[in-house]
Design goal:
Helix 5 packs parallel to helix 20 and helix 14 packs antiparallel against helix 17. Helices cover 53% and strands 3% of the residues. It is globular, with a radius of gyration of 22 Å. The relative contact order is 0.14. The protein is mainly alpha-helical and 466 residues long. The protein starts with 5 loop residues before the first strand and ends in an 8-residue tail after the last helix. The protein has two domains: 205 residues, no CATH class; 213 residues, Neurolysin, domain 3 (Orthogonal Bundle), CATH 1.10.1370. The chain has a two-stranded antiparallel sheet with strand order 1-2. A two-stranded parallel ribbon has the order 3-6. The chain binds zinc ion. The site of zinc ion has 3 residues, from helix 10.
Length: 466
C-alpha cells in the first residue's frame, strides 16, 4: 500500500503523483497552497491503512505475548541490554541533552519562514506548519536551506558539484565505496555491482525507500535505491554502504551475533563516514579546486539534516510504544500522533486532521513496521563515533572540519568494532571505539557549537518555543 501509494489531484488516473513526485514539490515549491495540496495529498494514501493497522497491532502483540513480552513495544525495547523502563529513561536523557539545540534551530527557522510566508501563516509562539519545511514528514529541513543559509552564497554546494562533474548514479556509489577503501577496507564484490538496484526501474513498481541487504549473510551484498544526483542521496549512499560494510565485517560471527552492537550502531555507521564528507575532502578527491571561504553554511546544512531530525527520530516510536502498550486506543491514533508531533517537533498540520485520517501510516517505517528509535540513537551515536575516530586520526581544530578520509588507523578501529557484531553487549563495542560506555550527546553539541552560538545571537530578540 505504501509503495503503490499515489495521489491524483483531479481524482482521475493519468496525472497521479507518487511519493517521489510529491516529495519534489515539498522540496522545491515555495507556494503555500501547492505545498499544502502535496502534503495533504500524500496523506490520502494512508487512510485505508488505518483499519488494517488496528488489526495488525492486535496480532503483533499476540505474537510478542507468546514470546513472553508485555507487548511489541517492550520486545523492541529489550534489544538494548537494559530493562525496557530504563531504556525509556535513557532516551529521555539523550533528548534532554539535545533539546536546547533543536529549540534554537526551530526558533530561527520559524522567524525565516514568517519572513517568507507572512506571520499570519507562520505565527510567533506557535508550531510551524508542517508542510513548509521541505520534507514530507518535516523530519529534516535540508531542502529549505536557501531560506535559512547564514551567508548568501552557498559555500559548499554538493548537489551543484556532483552535477557539474557529471557524476552518474553508479559514480556516486563508486565514490562512497572509495571512501571505505581509503580506510583500509576491501572493495565491494563484483556481485554488488551486478545485483544492486541503483535507479528507478521503468517497467515495474518498486519501493524506492533506500535499503541495504546481505542476501546470503556472506558476500552477496546489495543496495536497493532510486538514486537522484543530489546532496541528500550522496549522503544516503554512504549510509547504505555503511550497512553493507558492517554486514561483511561480522559475517564470521555465529548467526545469533551476526548483527550490529545495537540497531542504532547499524544506522550510525555509514552516517559517521558521511560526516567526513567535508569541503577539504572534496578538495582531496578533486571535486573542488580549492577550499571555499570559511562559512557557517556547511554546518547549517548539516544541522538541517541532523538536528532537525532528532525530535522526529524520537517520536515515531514514542507513538508506537503508546499504541502497542494500549495506553492509546484506536480512537485516538491520529490525535496522539499530532500531540507528539507538536510536543517534540513543534509542527502542526496545515489543515485539521481527524480520526478518519491515519497520518502515521504515511511514513514508511510505520507502514512497514520497521522500528525507528534506532535512527534517533544513530544520530547521536554517529557524532560520538566521529569524535573518537577524529581523535584517533589526530585531527586538530573544530570537530566539523574533520575528515578521516585515508586514515588507516581510524579505519582499523572502526572495523575492529564492526567485527565484534552483536557478540558483546553494546557498551563494550562502544567502549572499544570511543572509550565510553554510555551513549553521549555532548559530541553532537561540540560539533554544532559554532552554529549554536550564531543561532542564539540571531534569536536574541525572538520569542522562542511553542
Ligand atoms: Zn539504514
Amino acid at each position: 500500500m505504501y509503495g503503490k501509494g499515489k495521489f491524483c489531484p483531479q481524482g482521475q488516473s493519468g496525472d497521479c503523483l507518487t511519493l517521489g513526485d510529491l516529495s519534489k514539490i515539498l522540496a522545491s515549491s515555495r507556494d503555500y497552497d501547492e505545498l499544502k495540496q502535496a502534503w495533504v495529498g500524500w496523506r490520502t494514501t494512508s487512510k485505508p491503512m488505518r483499519e488494517k493497522f488496528v488489526r495488525f497491532v492486535e496480532l503483533a502483540n499476540e505474537g510478542a505475548g507468546e514470546f513472553g513480552f508485555r507487548d511489541l513495544g517492550d520486545l523492541w525495547k529489550t534489544r538494548y541490554d537494559m530493562p525496557p523502563d530504563e531504556f525509556e529513561k535513557e532516551l529521555n536523557r539523550l533528548w534532554e541533552q539535545v533539546r536546547p539545540l533543536y529549540e534554537q534551530l526551530h526558533c530561527y527557522t520559524r522567524t525565516q519562514l514568517a519572513k517568507k510566508y507572512g506571520s499570519d501563516k507562520v505565527p510567533t509562539g506557535k508550531p510551524i506548519p508542517a508542510h513548509l519545511l521541505g520534507n514530507m514528514w518535516s523530519q529534516d529541513f535540508a531542502n529549505i536551506f536557501d531560506l535559512l543559509a547564514p551567508e548568501e552564497k552557498s559555500a559548499f554546494d554538493v548537489t551543484g558539484i556532483l552535477r557539474e562533474k557529471k557524476i552518474d548514479e553508479r559514480g556516486v556509489v563508486r565514490q562512497a565505496e572509495a571512501f571505505f577503501v581509503s580506510l583500509g577496507l576491501d572493495p565491494l564484490p563484483d556481485t554488488f555491482w551486478e545485483r544492486s538496484m541503483f535507479t528507478k526501474p521503468r517497467d515495474r513498481e518498486v519501493v524506492c525507500h533506500a535499503s541495504a541487504w546481505d542476501i546470503d549473510w556472506l558476500d552477496d551484498l546489495r543496495i536497493k535505491m532510486c538514486i537522484e544526483i543530489n546532496a541528500e542521496d550522496f549522503t544516503t549512499v554512504h549510509h547504505e554502504l555503511g550497512h553493507n560494510y558492517y554486514q561483511r565485517a561480522y559475517k564470521h560471527q555465529s548467526a545469533l551475533f551476526a548483527d550490529s552492537a545495537n540497531d542504532g550502531f547499524h544506522e550510525a555507521l555509514g552516517d559517521t563516514i558521511a560526516l567526513s564528507v567535508t569541503p577539504a575532502y572534496f578538495v582531496k578527491i578533486g571535486y573542488l579546486d580549492k577550499l571555499p571561504a570559511d562559512s557557517l553554511n556547511p554546518l547549517m546544512q548539516r544541522a538541517l539534516d541532523k538536528i532537525a531530525f532528532l525530535p522526529f527520530g524520537l517520536l515515531v516510536d514514542q507513538w508506537r510504544f503508546d499504541v502497542f502498550s494500549g495506553r492509546v486506543t484506536p480512537d485516538q491514533y491520529n490525535a496522539h500522533w499530532w500531540k507528539l508531533r507538536t510536543k517534540y517537533q513543534g509542527v502542526a498540520p496545515p489543515i485539521a486532521r481527524s480520526e478518519k485520517d491515519f497520518d502515521p501510516g504515511a511514513k514508511y517505517h510505520v507502514a512497514a513496521n520497521v522500528p525507528y528509535t534506532r535512527y534517533f540513537l544513530a544520530t547521536i551515536l554517529q557524532f560520538q563515533l566521529h569524535r573518537a575516530l577524529c581523535e584517533v586520526a589526530g585531527h586538530e581544530g573544530p570537530l566539523h572540519t574533520c575528515s578521516i578520509y585515508n586514515n588507516k588507523e581510524a579505519g582499523k578501529r572502526l572495523n575492529d568494532m564492526m567485527e565484534m557484531g552483536l557478540s558483546k553487549p553494546w557498551p563494550d563495542a562502544l567502549e572499544a571505539l570511543t572509550g565510553q560506555r554510555q551513549m553521549d550527546a555532548t559530541a553532537i553539541i561540540d560539533y554544532f557549537q559554532p552554529l549554536l552560538d550564531w543561532l542564539k545571537e540571531q534569536n536574541k530578540d525572538a520569542v522562542c518555543g511553542w
